[in-house]
Amino acid sequence: MATGKRYLDSRKGWRAREQGHSAKNAYAPAVERVAVIMAMEAEAAPLRDALGATPIEVPVWASTLPVRLAVAPAVGGRPEVLLAVNGRDPTTGVDCIGSTAAALTTQVALTYGPIDLVVTAGTAGGWHRSNAEIGEVFVAWPHIACHDRRIDLPGFDQFGRGEIATADLRELADALGCRLGIVTTGDSLDESPTDRERILASGAEVKEMEAAAVAWVAQLHGVPVTAVKAITDLVESPVATATQFTANLAAAADALQATMMKLIDQLGDQ
Ligand code: ADE
Is any atom of ligand 1 closer than 6 Å to the C-beta of 116? Predict the structure, then answer.
């Protein structure tokens, strides 16, 4: 895609450039390998199937982790995709949602080989107040942040907020019919009154449980990051979040898959 440069060139430190990948011109960085980090199997299954991704072994150092890796080779203009899913907690048997597993999974993905872009993809809550709709897909912009790390000590308050700038995919998001918004991460499904205050102050429009952890690890590696999140629930609805989430998970995962496939294809067109 001729306009690819405009999506991405506000970011510095593209691994593609640093590592001498073959960019198609001097300005547009090639996106040759994308890592997609996901938390729940129900979120990941439609995308894994659509990509035709094949499971691969995790590296030996990570063999005690529940993380699961699959790879879809580059096809035509589509970049290679490394799909990394948090996996199941051996004690409870449920998917390892949340920031701890997300950070570990991202570290495993980023030691697989050179990665040009990390995408934290999954489901999320939205708000009536920002006119979010169930099944709508957001792309993170201009940053991802944390809402439940409250550390009232000099310097640590900023560290706790964990704001990390996202790759500039505004034009691509627009072309795909996605909304843009700040994505905010916490380790709880509900929204406590304190969370509510902090989220309102931050201007966030998307609430989920992994993106900030993924973004932090990506930043440590110098790899650009974005979040793509499909809405399963409206946080201030009278219907319990868990009830909405369960009812809407499959439809949101399908919407996420459809958007992710187009996004990945377009990234490879640069
Ligand atoms: N994932 C889906 N909906 C969510 C919500 N409301 N809060 C956190 N994570 C979510």
Answer: no
Q: How many whole angstroms separate alpha carbon 268 and alpha carbon 4?
A: 9
Ligand 1 close to Cβ of residue 224 (< 6 A) = no
SS3 for 230?
strand
Q: Of 210, 245, 246, 248, which is best to mutate to test ligand 1, by the most ligand atoms within 8 angstroms of its C-beta?
A: 245
Residue 144 in contact with residue 164, Cβ under 8 Å? yes
β 33-38/80-85 pair status: parallel
Q: Which residues are catalytic?
A: 43, 233
State pLDDT tens for residues 55-91.
Answer: 999 999 999 999 999 999 999 989 999 999 999 999 9
CA distances 144 to 26, 79, 107, Å, are 29, 24, 18
pTM: 0.91
Residues in the chain: 270
Residues linked to residue 136 through DSSP beta bridges, in sequence order = none
Q: Which domains does the chain have, with CATH numbers?
A: 4-268 (3.40.50.1580)
